[in-house]
Amino acid sequence: MAQTFVMVKPDGVRRGLVGEVIRRLEQKGLRLKAMKLIQVTPELAGKHYEEHRDKPFYGELISFITSGPSVPMVWEGREAVQVARTLMGTTDPVKAQPGTIRGDFALAITENIVHGSDSEESAEREISIYFSPEELV
Ligand code: CMP
């Protein structure tokens, strides 16, 4: 069964939206496999966002993602990667449809509430950065 990595970012935690994100994913039928509340370190953030290292927004992204607690999670279900991305909406909340998480709760591209893997390969890589195999229930 497909798995995906989803993380409520520091703005989502600060704004009390962890429950809202979980509710939407559960309501759709995805199953929660692992979850924790952590402070993302610069080292962890560097591994997670390694593909963006040369982008102009990289510094802002790392400083934001390490600015407070985040909630990384693993979700499982049919086409989990695509389903989670559809529920989240496009990366830029300005373009995200109403009814999606970013469409309903965000306006800024950096502070966009949630991260979700963009492919099954990314999901596998990101899950292994944040979780050990024993943490998946
Ligand atoms: P995320 O899905 O976590 O993956 C990379 C993040 O970089 C993205 O969400 C955005 O929050 C952030 N970001 C900041 N600026 C940009 C930009 N111009 N284009 C794409 N992503 C950006």
Automatic annotation (TrEMBL):
Record keywords: ATP-binding, Cytoplasm, Kinase, Magnesium, Metal-binding, Nucleotide metabolism, Nucleotide-binding, Phosphoprotein, Transferase
Catalyzed reaction equations: a ribonucleoside 5'-diphosphate + ATP = a ribonucleoside 5'-triphosphate + ADP; a 2'-deoxyribonucleoside 5'-diphosphate + ATP = a 2'-deoxyribonucleoside 5'-triphosphate + ADP
Positions bound to ATP: 9, 57, 85, 91, 102, 112
GO cellular component: cytoplasm
Cellular localization per UniProt: Cytoplasm
Domain Nucleoside diphosphate kinase-like: 1-137
E.C. number: 2.7.4.6
Superkingdom: Bacteria
Residues at the active site: 115
Entry keyword annotation includes Aminoacyl-tRNA synthetase: no
Classification via SUPFAM superfamilies: Nucleoside diphosphate kinase, NDK
Cofactor(s) recorded in Swiss-Prot or TrEMBL: Mg(2+)
Gene Ontology terms for molecular function: ATP binding; metal ion binding; nucleoside diphosphate kinase activity
GO terms for biological process, alphabetical: CTP biosynthetic process; GTP biosynthetic process; UTP biosynthetic process
Subunit organization: Homotetramer.
Family the entry assigns: Belongs to the NDK family.
Protein name, per record: Nucleoside diphosphate kinase
Origin species: Sulfobacillus thermosulfidooxidans (strain DSM 9293 / VKM B-1269 / AT-1)
Name of encoding gene: ndk
